[in-house]
Amino acid sequence: MARKKNKGGDEGGGSASWMVTFSDLSTLLLTFFVLLLSMSSLNEKAIRSTFQNFDKTSGILFFKQYQKIRQNPDIVIQDIIKSLKSVYIADVRKLDEVSKTPWKKDFKLIVSSGNALLVKKRWNPGDFSFIFGDQLLFESGSATLKPQAYAILEKFARFLNEASYKAYVDGHTDDVPVKSAAFASNDELALARAHAVLEYLVTEGKVPPEKVALGGYGDTQPLASNDTPEGRRLNRRVEIIFEKIK
User: Fold this and answer.
1) CA 178 – CA 180 distance, rounded (Å)
2) Residue range of the domain that includes 25
3) Where is the secretion signal located (predicted)?
4) Residues in Cβ contact with 31 at an 8 Å cutoff, skipping those fewer than 6 apart
């Protein structure tokens, strides 16, 4: 009489194979959760130290502020101003101490009375601009950047590369005819200065060309009256307008 097959034995062999696969899966899951636990317990002080060392070289972003930069441009404004003050030494004075003209309400502060650096809050939420007096970036009648301008523009290039903003670089002059053989008019001088700034941002700062544009307005958009030396000084400027990319 033929022996009856033991079906239970066959099933038992299949069960052992299934348990091997389950064991492998369990090991992988355990490894994954251990990895998550180790990542969550990273030393925050060590990470902060790394970011601080980076900031001291050329960055403009702080460890705590990195994720907030797109929502709060004031962080960028304040940090760039700190960097600028370390590069360009000048007295910081309130705008009211420099001028009583009506346009002062549109500006936040001014650095020095000799080379004006104005920070202006734009009309659109999130947009803002920096306005540089021409003597801070250029020699009189010239469109060649001063060496001291490089460190300043590096800050802006860093910001444009990291954040969702684009920039418009606009050149402006007073209404005094240009006294340089290199330029036929104030319009040409204004445009050449804006181009010098834009070229540095793209060439040296590696800012994508599609994130920057330029304009030259000559004496058509004055900030103050051209009837006084101070007014003309304020009108000779380069403005970098930062517009949030929507």
Assistant:
1) 6
2) 7-41
3) none
4) none
